[in-house]
Design brief:
- There is one protein chain.
- The chain has twelve helices and 13 strands.
- It is of the alpha+beta class and 339 residues long.
- The chain folds into three domains: 4-98, 3-Layer(aba) Sandwich (Rossmann fold), CATH 3.40.50.20; 107-122 and 181-330, ATP-grasp fold, B domain (D-amino Acid Aminotransferase, Chain A, domain 1, 2-Layer Sandwich), CATH 3.30.470.20; 126-178, ATP-grasp fold, A domain (Dna Ligase, domain 1), CATH 3.30.1490.20.
- The strands form three sheets. The chain has a five-stranded antiparallel β-sheet. A four-stranded parallel β-sheet has the order 3-2-1-4. Strands 5-8-6-7 form a four-stranded antiparallel β-sheet.
- Strand 6 (137-145) and strand 7 (148-153) form a beta hairpin.
- Helix 1 crosses helix 12.
- The radius of gyration is 21 Å and the shape is globular.
- The structure holds adenosine monophosphate.
Length: 339
């Protein structure tokens, strides 16, 4: 088959390349010079295009090379965080796996919330002014992402005190959200437009510093040290859910698929993740979604318990993407899975 799968060298590139290889498709790595050594160690790319950084994806010669190699680009978190996403959606000329317009919704907190509500999914309360706050809140500063630049306030007074100490420039578009107390759960879904079906391929939780280490110090020491929780992801931990909870996650995922079809046609294609906090098994709140492959899927390159139940073979998210591309190619339906 003369189609190839391309991705940028970071985030979940190793498993995307590996998935392409497992599905007998050519694997193209767009590799930042500084990461070349790392990716060479795994010998997964059939072709490597060296670049200075992720913004080079939009260079004319890069786009021409990808089109010449009949590449389908698989986007991931680095593209969302480090590229001007509107520009990428408008100007990137090679086919992108998935619905590229949905990436704009993922990158915008208000659009994100709108889509979750449209899907009938419960989201945390948000407050347009600090004066309205009547519960513990997590504050997400403008431009904050990946848990960096968040802070916690126990209530209105604590929030006002913390805001008074904040740099005025940062106060611009504060996103003040109810802090949901519970355990985080990140299910990895794949929606196949070719099959018209949502698959659950794995579940993880994130390992975040320093919040996940706070329980290791006794409460009086926490008070003495005046520690503030931070939420920066350093890794992911596998999880299986109580079987009785699975159906509610599937219902949320299906609601999400339908909402994206209504608000961002043709809707979600391929991987997405609903980022939830469970207060109790039947009390689940969703504070985020990702409309592309998430790094937590790196846990399951060779499959997870759920993907094994469904596919009976080592089916990681990277491979599932490559399989959809291969099947679309074989049935001349590439336009149904790319934008
Ligand atoms: P995010 O960058 O939105 O994925 O959030 C990073 C981390 O902050 C999450 O994994 C959670 O631990 C925490 N977090 C974000 N929003 C909330 C919330 N509304 N309630 C409790 N924890 C949250």
């Amino acid at each position: 088959m003369n189609i190839s799968v391309a991705t940028y060298g970071s985030h979940s590139a190793l498993q995307i390349l590996r998935g392409a290889r497992d599905e007998k498709l050519k694997a193209v790595l767009i590799c930042p010079r500084g990461h070349r050594r790392l990716y060479d160690r795994f010998r997964l790319a059939d072709e490597t295009l060296l670049v200075d950084g992720v913004k080079d994806l939009l260079r004319d010669d890069m786009q021409k090379s990808l089109i010449d190699m009949k590449s389908v680009l698989v986007p991931h978190g680095t593209i969302i965080s480090d590229v001007d996403i509107e520009k990428f959606v408008e100007d990137f000329k090679a086919p992108v796996f998935g619905n590229r317009r949905l990436l704009v919704w993922e990158a915008d907190r208000e659009l994100k919330e709108k889509l979750l509500r449209e899907a009938g999914i419960r989201v945390p309360r948000t407050f347009s002014s600090p004066d309205e706050v009547d519960c513990p809140v997590i504050v997400k500063l403008p431009g904050a992402e990946g848990g960096r630049g968040y802070f916690l306030a126990s209530g209105r007074e604590d929030l006002l005190k913390k805001l008074a100490n904040l740099d005025v420039r940062k106060k611009g578009e504060l996103y003040i959200q109810e802090y949901v107390l519970g355990v985080t759960v990140y299910p990895h879904f794949f929606y196949s437009p070719l099959k018209g079906e949502v698959e659950l391929l794995g579940v993880d939780r994130r390992y975040e510093t320093n919040v996940d280490s706070l329980g290791r110090i006794p409460a009086p020491d926490q008070l003495n040290l005046g520690v503030q929780p931070t939420y920066e992801v350093v890794g992911n931990i596998p999880l299986v859910l109580r079987e009785s909870m699975l159906e509610s996650f599937f219902e949320m995922a299906e609601g999400f698929v339908e909402a994206t079809k209504r608000l961002v046609p043709p809707g979600v294609i391929g991987p997405f993740c609903i980022e939830a906090i469970c207060r109790a098994p039947d009390d689940i709140v969703v504070f985020e979604f990702s409309a592309r492959i998430v790094a937590g899927t790196n846990l399951f390159v060779n499959g997870s318990p759920y993907s094994y139940l469904l596919h009976s073979e080592g089916m990681g998210m990277g491979r599932r993407i490559a399989r959809e591309i291969r099947i679309a190619c074989e049935t001349s339906s590439l336009e149904r899975i790319t934008t």
